[in-house]
């Protein structure tokens, strides 16, 4: 086992639960985004029959690329989570009970050891917004010359075809 600390065998979780605190390097999310500082996680595992409840907090800083201006920026992540590990083998039996439970995030595991590395990895990925903006009002790039408009206006003619401008023209035309 090269990463014994992050795959926790069920028999290592005592009835009163198991508290983990660990740090992970950027390898954990290497295929997603670079981490600017170590990922620090705190996880409390508690068995519930064949399921394992996990509660905790994950903190790190990721480097992202802005969707509008394409500049790199850093995003701080500090997420609390509550997840349930369920054995993969129980999947077909669960359909009904699953509906009756409150929506809880579920991670399936092999029934022997819970992948805590996968859990924290997922929390970081979920914490990154779908739309990645360096700032709320990022002006993006000029579609004509490609200049980053956050650094000031470019020399191009200003002709912004915003949907509001179009709406305004329509309203004027209709005599409103
Ligand atoms: Zn931006
Ligand atoms: Zn321009």
Describe this structure in words.
With 176 residues, the protein is an alpha+beta fold. It has two domains: 7-138, no CATH class; 140-176, no CATH class. The chain has helices at residues 95-100, 116-127, 163-173, and strands at 7-9, 18-24, 35-48, 51-65, 72-87, 105-109, 113-115. The strands form two sheets. A five-stranded mixed β-sheet has the order 2-3-4-5-6, with helices on one face. The chain is elongated. The mean pLDDT is 85. It binds zinc ion (ZN) (2 copies).
The CA-CA distance between the termini, in Å, is 73 Å
Q: What structural class is derived from the secondary structure elements?
A: alpha+beta
Domain module count: 2
H and E string = EEEEEHEEHH
- What is the average of the pLDDT values? 85
Helix run count: 3
Instruction: Report the uncertain regions.
Output: none
How many beta-strand runs?
Answer: 7
Main features:
single chain; about 180 residues; alpha+beta; 2 domains; 5-stranded mixed β-sheet; two-stranded antiparallel ribbon; 3 helices; about 15% helix; elongated; binds zinc ion
Layout of secondary structure:
Blueprint: E1 7-9, E2 18-24, E3 35-48, E4 51-65, E5 72-87, H1 95-100, E6 105-109, E7 113-115, H2 116-127, H3 163-173
Parallel strand pairs: 5-6
Antiparallel strand pairs: 1-7, 2-3, 3-4, 4-5
The structure holds zinc ion (2 copies).
One zinc ion (ZN) binds next to loops.
């Amino acid at each position: 086992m090269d990463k014994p600390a992050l795959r926790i065998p069920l028999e290592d979780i005592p009835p009163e639960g198991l508290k983990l605190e660990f740090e992970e390097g950027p390898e954990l999310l290497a295929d997603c985004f670079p981490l600017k500082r170590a990922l620090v996680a705190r996880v409390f595992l508690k068995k519930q029959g064949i399921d394992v409840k996990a509660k905790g907090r994950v903190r790190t800083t990721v480097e992202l690329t802005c969707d509008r201006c394409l500049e790199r920026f850093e995003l701080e992540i500090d997420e609390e989570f509550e997840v349930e590990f369920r054995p993969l083998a129980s999947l077909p039996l669960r359909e009904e009970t699953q509906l009756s439970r409150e929506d809880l995030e579920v991670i399936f595991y092999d029934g022997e050891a819970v992948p805590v590395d996968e859990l924290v990895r997922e929390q970081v990925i979920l914490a990154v917004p779908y739309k990645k903006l360096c700032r709320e009002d990022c002006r993006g790039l000029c579609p004509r010359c490609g200049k980053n408009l956050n650094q000031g206006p470019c020399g191009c003619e200003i002709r912004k075809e915003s949907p509001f401008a179009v709406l305004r023209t329509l309203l004027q035309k209709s005599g409103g």
